[in-house]
Amino acid sequence: MGRLSAPEPIVLPARAGAGPTVPAVPFVEIEAVRAKEFVPAAKEALTALVAEQGQDKLIRPVFNWAGRNSLFPLHWGLACCAIEFAAAFGARWDAERFGVVPRSSPRQCDLMIVNGTVTWKVAHKLITLYEQMPEPKWVIAMGNCATGGGPFRTAYSVVPGVDKLVPVDIYIAGCPPRPEAMLDGILQLERLIRDRKE
Amino acid sequence: MGPEDLQRGLASRLGAGLLGVDAFDGTAGRIRFDRSVALELFRAMREELGFGHLSTVAGIDWVDRREVVYVLWSDRALQYVLLSTFLPADDPKVESASGVWPSANWHEREAWEMVDITFDHHPDLRHLLMPDGYAFHPLLRSFKLHEPESLEVKVRHV
Questions:
Q1: Quick check: pTM over 0.90?
Q2: Chain B contacts of A153, Cβ < 8 Å?
Q3: Is the Cβ of A165 closer than 8 Å to some Cβ of chain B?
């Protein structure tokens, strides 16, 4: 039970006047750089760096860093996995700390989380929503139904896996997956985006 | 309203089209009729006997023939009555009840979609639960479950 043992007693500093005097913070005088001098110098340095290393190698990590920390999934629920999807954005799991904010319009999204059974009736609407999302975009198949049809795999009305319709980047197993599993899938996707070359 | 009352009330109108009124089993009676008198029976049930609510229409595939069962409810008599008719499997057609009870519209669409029973003079007989262009009637006994990989359904782009 080490965690519950009493912490080290806090030793308060002595009252002012009783202890040694605190040295004053030295005032450092920084020479200001004028913008019209800084901008050409920075431009020259960046140009040399880009010429040396190549533009894609320099800029791509910045885009990947920005993209993977602000994934906006489409806010739609297909079946019971949507309950776990909703719970992941609640107070307990708080997916927003990873920059994941569900948006209501596919035009504002770069991530589609297919959370539930996809029937043939909804299939072409799913494709329409996917095509309305701007590039670059990713798809997570959440749960067994979206991954491979789940218990309804041989049913006459169910798409046996959403990868028959759209390209899928991450599959999350579970029926339904816990919100932790969904967050882990998002983190795996962030790892994919980090290593993205183009 | 017992089975004898129904028999007496309907026999004069339907003649030989009324095949029989089964004894009430629990709460629901069962009227068996020939499909040639379907519309007359529907009108009589609604306008004369007061069965104002059509609860459901069910299609059943008995392989050699098909059956349509209508479940009616009367607010006045407070009882259910089933209407049942058999159709030949090679010509499964019956008159639509949606002109008498508007709630029959979607139930008949489902019965057509699932067990391929055609309802004559239906205002809008198209797919209800499956996408447009779906080529099967999946609740027929002759429908074989597909291997998932071989189930190719054309998805229409909008």
A1: no
A2: 148
A3: yes
